[in-house]
Design brief:
It is built from five helices and no strands. It is an all-alpha fold. The longest helix is centred in the middle third of the chain and has 27 residues, at 60-86. The chain is globular.
Amino acid sequence: MIPYIVVLFSHVLYGMVWIDTSIVQNDIKRLIVIGGVSKFIQIGMMAGLLFPYTPVLSYCVPKVTLAIVGQVLNVSVYHKLGLMGVYYGNRFGLAIPHVTSFPFNVVDNPQYMGCILTLTSIMCFYPYREIVYLCSYWCALYKVTGFIES
């Protein structure tokens, strides 16, 4: 149950900030720190959950390709928008330019799609019930967050 709450936390936070930045006292730097700490905890939690399992190494190329494409999308979003843009700078009154080039011209919500592809890769490498359930839940949260932001 705790992993589901850990994953849910950042999505609830971002949804609340999208609606009202006063949740973080109108301080984007506070959001960036909270978001970064949350992501660090999520990565540690996921590593801990995966540790006892043996990855399924058959068909590695498509699995690794999913992860690489996912991370290219993620990194590209950070590169194009910068940290302030990724963390809703426009909601905090900052002038964030509207970007229509890659990766935004390839897929809606490229950062979230990148996360979904990465989580799908994890599910392919670790097709164990607990991992598939958590990753599927996490993917669904990215879809909901993307819907809220559109």
